[in-house]
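Sequence in, structure out.
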Amino acid sequence: MVIDGFFDMEQLVEQIITYSIVIIITVAVVVYYLKNQKKKSDIVAGKIEKAKLEGSHEPVSLHPVIDINHCIQTGACIAACPEKDILGIKDGKATTIHASQCIGHGACFHACPTEAITLCIGTEKRGVELPHINHNFETNISGIFIAGELGGMGLIKNAVEQGKQAVGNIASSFKKNTATDYDLIIVGSGPAGISASLAAKKNNLNTLILEQDSLGGTVSTFPRQKIVMTSAMDLPLYGKVKLSETSKKELLDLWVDALDKNDISVVENSKVDAIETEDNHFTVITITGKKYTTSRVLLAIGRRGTPRKLNIPGENTEKVAYRLLEPEDISGKNIIVVGGGDAGIESALLLADNNKVSLFYRGEGFQGVKPKNRERITEAIQQNRIIGRSNVRPLEIKEKEVIIQLPDDGGEESVDNDLIYIFIGGELPTQFLKKIGLQITKKFGEPLLNH
C-alpha cells in the first residue's frame, strides 16, 4: 500500500510538474504575443499620429470603414491592399492610417472574412457630390447610365469593370428601336468607356463613342513620362491584361490595339453639350451642334473632365494650363505650379530639370499624396531644385508676373513668371448633369459598396 501510494504521489508530482511547464510555456507565449501585438499596435498608433500631422488621415473620397464589433484581426484586409499603410491593426482591431491615399481598390472590402468593412464615400464632416445611380448603374432617368470615376469609383481596374457591367445590364433588357441612329452612345473614352465599347460590341449593340478630347480620357492628358499604376483587368473581347507598372504610351497603345482588333472607332473632339429625352429615346447634342439619336446613353466622362479654376484676373490667358503634355519641350522658363497634390508635385518634378520652378500649395505640408511623391518633392525643395511656397494664394496673372497673397496677411508679392500650371483638382460637371436632369446627392460617409 505504501509503495502504491508512493508511486501515486510520484505520478502526481510528475503531472504537476508537466502541467506547470505547459502553463509556464503557454503564459510565456501569450505574454510574448501580447507584447508583440502591443508593439505593433504602438507602431500603427505612431503612424496615425504622423498621418494626422501630414493631413493624410482624413479620407477625401472612397475609403474603408471598419466595424470593430465584427473585426477579428485576421489582417486579410491589410494583406489584400496593394497600397502602403492605408490600413493597420491598432488595439486588436483594423483601422485606417492614411485614409486619404485610398484610391478605391475595394480589395480590403472583398478580402475581409467577417464582412467588417464597408466602402464609404465622404465623411460626416466632408461631403462628396455624386450623381444618383442604382445597382445596375442606371441613373434616375431610365436609359441613362453612369460608369467609372463619375460614379465615385477610382482606379482603372474598377472603371473597366464598371463599364463592362453597365453594358451587360443594358444588353440584358435591351429592345431594338429602329427609330434611333444608335442602340447606345458612350460619352467618354477613358477606361470605363473603352471597356463599355468592347462589351457593347460583344453584345451586338450599334454603338457610338464620343470623346471631348482624345482617346484615353484623363490618361491621355498625363505627362509622357508619367507612370500609370494599375492592376490586372479583364477587357471584353481582348482578355485579361496583367500590369503593375506601365507608361501612358503603353497603356494607350494597349487600348488602341483592343479597339482596332474589334473595328471600334472613337469620335474625338466631340464634347457633349446636352442630352434631350424624347419618346423612348435620347438626342445627344455636341457643342458643334451635331445631333445623334440613341436608345441608351452611358456617361463615362470622369470627375476630372472640368478642371477646377482659381477664378482670378488673367486666368484666361495663353500662359495658363491645367495639364502638362510634353514637359521635355519646355526649358528656360520661370514656371509656377499651383497645387500640392500628386498631379502638381509630379508636374513640378518633371519641369524642374530645365526650368526655374516654384510650387505653390496650401497648408504646411503635402496632404493626401503618395508617400513616394512626398519624399521626392521634399528632397527637391531641400536641394533648392524647386522653390516650395506654402500658404500662398495667386491673386492675379499678368503677362510676365503673378501677384500672390503672402501668408498671415503679409501683403502681396510679384513673382516673375512665363508659364503657370494649375492642378487644384477637378469639378463634378454639375451644371451639365443637372441640365440633363440627373439627380445629384452629397454623400456624408454613406456606403458605396455592400457585400
